[in-house]
Design a protein that fits this description.
alpha+beta, 3 strands
Length: 71
């Protein structure tokens, strides 16, 4: 039983799975960019955290690749 559900309304699930340098988003039966748009409207703090995580992850990957190539 979900305590947040209002009587008469169906429960809509949203999830974001993060990986080392990527993600998979699902919201209201949508995936990809449509799910990100739906999540951004409902959970802006979550999306800000996801974007920050992905930026930092890609920066670290680029830094490691750059340092490896320069040696």
């Amino acid at each position: 039983m979900l305590m947040d559900a209002e009587p008469g309304r169906s429960v809509q699930m949203s999830s974001v799975e993060t990986r080392l340098i990527g993600y998979r988003a699902k919201s209201n039966g949508k995936t990809g960019f449509a799910a990100l748009k739906a999540l951004r409207e409902k959970h802006p703090v979550l999306m800000h955290g996801l974007c920050t995580y992905l930026r930092v992850s890609w920066f670290v990957v680029a830094l490691v690749v750059g340092l490896t190539i320069s040696r």
